[in-house]
C-alpha cells in the first residue's frame, strides 16, 4: 500500500490550523510521531469526542503513519484531566497490542501549540521560524490521523465533526457534510438564543469572528472543528475587533512597558527572540528599529498577550499581525534560527491555567454545556470551497449540470502540488462553479 498516494487521493489536510496537505507532511523520516490531542483552547470538544468514538481508527492510523515515518516513538499528547478519553485509549492500545504511548499534559494554554507540544513531549525547542521536522518530529491532530486511516480504506474527506456551543439553544456535536453553511450548523444546534450574535469559527483565542448576517455565506471546510456563538458586545469579540489605528494610538499612550506580554509569551519562553513589549514600544515611534519589528514575524498569534497578559487592555497580538503584514509587503520573511536553542528557565512557572484563562475571557458560563449528543445533519445544498487550507487551490474537474455522488473527486491538484484534492460531500447536481463548487440535491431525490 502506498500510504502517501492514498492520502493524496483522499484529499487529507491537517484537520485543524492552517491545513497543511498531509501527503506532503508525511513524506519524512523522524524519531517521533506525535498526535496533538491537547485541544487546549477553552470550550472545544471535537477531538475528545473523536477519541472516544474512533479510538481504534486513530491508533491503527498512527501505526501505519509511524511505519511510514520510521518513527521510534508514537505518542498521543493528551491532557491528564481527560480521564474518560485516556481510559478508552488505554483499552484500545491494549486490545490492538499497539506500541502507541500516552503523554500527559497539564491543563494549561497553549499546551496544544505545536511547538509547545513538541517541547513537552521531547524536551526539544523548535528553532525560530522552524517546524517540528527540524527536531526529528512530525505532529498531526486527531481528526487528521482518522482521515488518514479512512484514506487507507479509500474513503475521502467529505465530512466534519463540529462542536457548537455558547449562545445556542441546544449545544451539541454535529456531524456535517463539508460545504454546509455556518448558519445551518447553528440552526442544527437549535438556533441562537440571541437576535444578534457573533460566531467564532475555531477557539476563543485564535478563532476567526464573523457576524450573524455573514453566517449563511461562509461554509464549513476541512480545517474547521468548532463554532462558538457569543453576544456581539462580548469581551472577546470587542477585543478582537478593535481597529488597528485605535490600537496603535492606545499603545502610544498606554503601554507602560511592564513586559508582562513578553514574560508570558510561550514562544519567548521556548527560547525565541520574540519580545512583544519591544515591538509595542517601537510601533508608536516615528522611526522604527527594523530589527525589533522583525521579531513580530515569530508570533504565532496565540492571543495570550492580548486576552490574558496585558494589564492595560492593549493588543500586542494584533500589532504583531499588522507589523507582519507590513514586513511581508516589503518581502521580509522570518529567518530560520539556530538549532542550538534553549528554553527559558521560567517556562515551567508561566503556563496559563485554563480555568483562570476562561474566567478572564468571561466564558465560564459556557464551560459545563454538554455536547455528548451527536446530531447528523443532512442538507439539500453544499458550497464546497476549492481552497480550504494553506497552499494551492484545487482545479474543478466537473461542469455545471454534472451529476456527482458523495465521495467523487470534483477538484484536483497534482501530486507534487502544495494542495489537496476536493470531493463531493453529497449526491446531487453541480449548479455553479466559481471559487467553490455548489452542488444541490435534485427535487425528486430523497436525503438519506
Ligand atoms: S503587557 Fe501591555 S502594557 Fe505591558 S508592555 Fe506589554 S503591551 Fe505594554
Ligand atoms: S500572540 Fe502574543 S503571546 Fe502569543 S506568540 Fe504572539 S506575542 Fe507571544
Describe this structure in words.
The structure is a single chain. By secondary structure, the chain is an alpha/beta fold. The chain has 4 domains: 3-152, NADH-ubiquinone oxidoreductase 51kDa subunit (Rossmann fold, 3-Layer(aba) Sandwich); 159-234 and 363-377, Ubiquitin-like (UB roll) (Roll); 240-361, no CATH class; 380-448, Beta Barrel (OB fold (Dihydrolipoamide Acetyltransferase, E2P)). It contains 17 helices and 19 strands. It has helices at 3-9, 22-25, 46-53, 55-69, 83-96, 114-122, 142-152, 182-188, 235-240, 244-254, 260-263, 266-269, 276-283, 290-293, 304-309, 316-329, 354-361, and strands at 32-37, 73-79, 101-105, 108-109, 137-141, 159-166, 172-177, 198-201, 208-211, 226-230, 352-353, 374-376, 381-385, 395-396, 403-404, 409-412, 422-423, 428-433, 436-440. Strands 9-8-10-6-7-12 form a 6-stranded mixed β-sheet, with helices on both faces. The model has no long low-confidence stretch (mean pLDDT 95). Bound molecules: iron/sulfur cluster (SF4) (2 copies). The site of one iron/sulfur cluster (SF4) has 14 residues, from α11 and α13. Keywords: 4Fe-4S, Electron transport, Iron, Iron-sulfur, Metal-binding, Repeat, Transport. InterPro entries: Ion_transpt_RnfC/RsxC, Nuo51_FMN-bd, Nuo51_FMN-bd_sf, PduS, RnfC_N, Single_hybrid_motif, Soluble_ligand-bd.
Q: Provide mean pLDDT, rounded.
A: 95
Per CATH, what is the topology of the largest domain?
Answer: Rossmann fold
Oligomer: single chain
CATH homologous superfamily (4th level) name of the largest domain: NADH-ubiquinone oxidoreductase 51kDa subunit
Amino acid at each position: 500500500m502506498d500510504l502517501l498516494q492514498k492520502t493524496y487521493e483522499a484529499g487529507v489536510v491537517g484537520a485543524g490550523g492552517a491545513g497543511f496537505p498531509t501527503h506532503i507532511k508525511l513524506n519524512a523520516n523522524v524519531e517521533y510521531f506525535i498526535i496533538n490531542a491537547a485541544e487546549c483552547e477553552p470550550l472545544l470538544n471535537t477531538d475528545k469526542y473523536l477519541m472516544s468514538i474512533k479510538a481504534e481508527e486513530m491508533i491503527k492510523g498512527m501505526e501505519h503513519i509511524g511505519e511510514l515515518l520510521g518513527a521510534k516513538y508514537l505518542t498521543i499528547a493528551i491532557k491528564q484531566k481527560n480521564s474518560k478519553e485516556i481510559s478508552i485509549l488505554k483499552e484500545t492500545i491494549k486490545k490492538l497490542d499497539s506500541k502507541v504511548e500516552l503523554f500527559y499534559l497539564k491543563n494549561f494554554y497553549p499546551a496544544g501549540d505545536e511547538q509547545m507540544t513538541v517541547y513537552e513531549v521531547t524536551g526539544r525547542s523548535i528553532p525560530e521560524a522552524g517546524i517540528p521536522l527540524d527536531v526529528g518530529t512530525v505532529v498531526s491532530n486527531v481528526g487528521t490521523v482518522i482521515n488518514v486511516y479512512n484514506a487507507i480504506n479509500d474513503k475521502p474527506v467529505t465530512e466534519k465533526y463540529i462542536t457548537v456551543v455558547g449562545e445556542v439553544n441546544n449545544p451539541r456535536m454535529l456531524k456535517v457534510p463539508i460545504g454546509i453553511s455556518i448558519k445551518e450548523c447553528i440552526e442544527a444546534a437549535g438556533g441562537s438564543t440571541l437576535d444578534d450574535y457573533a460566531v467564532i469559527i475555531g477557539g476563543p483565542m485564535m478563532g476567526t469572528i464573523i457576524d450573524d448576517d455573514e453566517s449563511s455565506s461562509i461554509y464549513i471546510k476541512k480545517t474547521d472543528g468548532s463554532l462558538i456563538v457569543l453576544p456581539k458586545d462580548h469581551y472577546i469579540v470587542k477585543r478582537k475587533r478593535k481597529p488597528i489605528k485605535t490600537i496603535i494610538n492606545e499603545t502610544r499612550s498606554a503601554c507602560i512597558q511592564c513586559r508582562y506580554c513578553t514574560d508570558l509569551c510561550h514562544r519567548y519562553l521556548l527560547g525565541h527572540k520574540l519580545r512583544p513589549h519591544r515591538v509595542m514600544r517601537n510601533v508608536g515611534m516615528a522611526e522604527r528599529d527594523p530589527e525589533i519589528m522583525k521579531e513580530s514575524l515569530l508570533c504565532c498569534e496565540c492571543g495570550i498577550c492580548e486576552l490574558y497578559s496585558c494589564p492595560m487592555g492593549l493588543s500586542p497580538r494584533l500589532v504583531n499581525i499588522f507589523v507582519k503584514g507590513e514586513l511581508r509587503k516589503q518581502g521580509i520573511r522570518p529567518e530560520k534560527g539556530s538549532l542550538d536553542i534553549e528554553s527559558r528557565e521560567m517556562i515551567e512557572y508561566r503556563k496559563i491555567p485554563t480555568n483562570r484563562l476562561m474566567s478572564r475571557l468571561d466564558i465560564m458560563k459556557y464551560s459545563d454545556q454538554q455536547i455528548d449528543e451527536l446530531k447528523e445533519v443532512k442538507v439539500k445544498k453544499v458550497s464546497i470551497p476549492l481552497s480550504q487550507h494553506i497552499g494551492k487551490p484545487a482545479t474543478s474537474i466537473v461542469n455545471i449540470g454534472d451529476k456527482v455522488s458523495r465521495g467523487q473527486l470534483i477538484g484536483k491538484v497534482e501530486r507534487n502540488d502544495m494542495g489537496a484534492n476536493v470531493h463531493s460531500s453529497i449526491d446531487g447536481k453541480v449548479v455553479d462553479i466559481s471559487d467553490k463548487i455548489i452542488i444541490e440535491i435534485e427535487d425528486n431525490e430523497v436525503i438519506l
